[in-house]
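Example record

One chain of 357 residues, shown exactly as stored in the release files.
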Amino acid sequence: MRRFASALLPVLACAPLALRPAPLAAQARPFLVGSITARPGEKASGYLDVAAGVDSGTRIPVTVIQGREPGPVLALIGGTHGVEYNPMLALQRVRRDLDPAQLKGTVIIVHVANLPSFQRRTIYYSPVDWKNLNRVYPGRRDGTVSERIAWTITNEVIDRCDYLVDMHSGDGNEDLISYDYWNKQGLDARADSIGRDMAMAWGSHGIVIDTERPRDRDASLYTQNTAQLRGKPSITAEDGYLGLVREDMIQRNYEGAFRILRYLKMLPGAAELTDHPVWYDPTVVLQSPATGMWFPLVEVGQWVPAGKIVGYVTDYFGERIADVTAPFAGVMLYVVKTPPTGQGEPVGMVGAPRAQP
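Predicted C-alpha cells for this chain:
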C-alpha cells in the first residue's frame, strides 16, 4: 500500500521478542458485560446504557464472544472518534467470523464507543458536550456524556479485560500512514514488554514509542493508557485516513484483530509478527499557532528536515499569519488536510526513526 513510510527509510532491526503471555483469566461461567451475557461457546450482542445526567444519555453497542475453552479476555474498541469508520466496519466482520468453538477465552467488542459523534458525523469532539472521548478517561459517573461513556467503558470493559486494542484510523481531517502506539510507561515491565510485542503482532510497519502519557490512574485521559496503568498490556492502532471507507483499511483492521488473537494463543495458528518495523521516537504533534485556515505543504510519509515549514495558517481573508515548522528531522506520520484550524489544535505529527528499543 502507498501509505507505509518504511519504504522511505532504512530497514531497522528488531529485538528478540518477549515470551508470549500465558492466559490470565479463565471463564467457566457465563461472562457478563453490563447485562450482555455470553455462555461458553456463545456470542451475545447488546447495549451498555449510559443514562442521561447533566446532558443527554446514549448507549454503546457491544458484543461478547466467549470461547468453549478458558483463556484471557481481549477487548477490541472501535469508534472512539465518530468518523473513524474502518475499525468499526472491521469489528462487524470480526463478530461475524470469530468462531467460539475455536476460541480460548473471551473477546469483548465495543463496536462504536462514541455513538453521539458517529451519528452526528463529528471529528474529535462529541456534538453533545464538545469533549474528546479519548481525553477524558477514566471518566466520571456524574460527568458530561463523554465522561460517562469513558466511565462506563472503564468499569464494564477495561476493568474486565486482560489485554486491549484501541482501534483508530485517520479522522475526517487526518491523512496518515498506518502505525501503532506502544505505550512504554516504565511502570510495569510485563505490561510494557507484552505491549511491545502486541504492536508487532498487529502488523503495522510503523510503531510510535510513546513515553509521555499521564501516569495518574485517576487522570489517565486515553483509552489505552487507562488499561496500561491497570497493568493490562495494550496498544492503539491507526489504520485508515481522512474518514474514508476503504476495503484495504477495513481488511487491515480485521487482520490485525486476528493476528492479536493468535499472538495471545486465543486462536490456533502461529503468531505473525512484523519482522522489521520502523520505530519512531521522539514524536511530536504539531499544533496550530493561530486560528484561521490551514494549508499543509507536505505529504504523509514525507521526510522533513529540522526547521522545514510544513504548512502555514492564514486569516479568513487569506493573509498568511503563521508558519508551522518541524522541530527535528523525521517522517510526517499524519497531516491535517482540511482548512479549519484553531489555535492549539493539531495540524500534523512528525516522528524520528530510531533503532529498535
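Notes: The chain has a mean pLDDT of 93.
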